[in-house]
Amino acid sequence: MKGISRRALTRLASALALLTYAGGALADPAQHDVLILVYHRFAASVTDSTTVRTDTFRSQLRFFEDNGYRVVPLSDVIAWHAGRQDNLPPRALVLSVDDGHRSVYEVLWPMLKGRSVPVTLFIYPSAISNASYAMTWDQLSALVQSGTFDVESHTEWHPNFKTERARLTPDAYRRFVHDQLRRSRARIEGELHRPVRLLAWPFGIYDTELEAIARDEGYTNGFSLDAKPVTPQSNAMALPRYLMTQHCDMTCLRGMLRNAQAHHD
Question: Where is each NodB homology domain found (predicted)?
Answer without folding.
Answer: 91-265
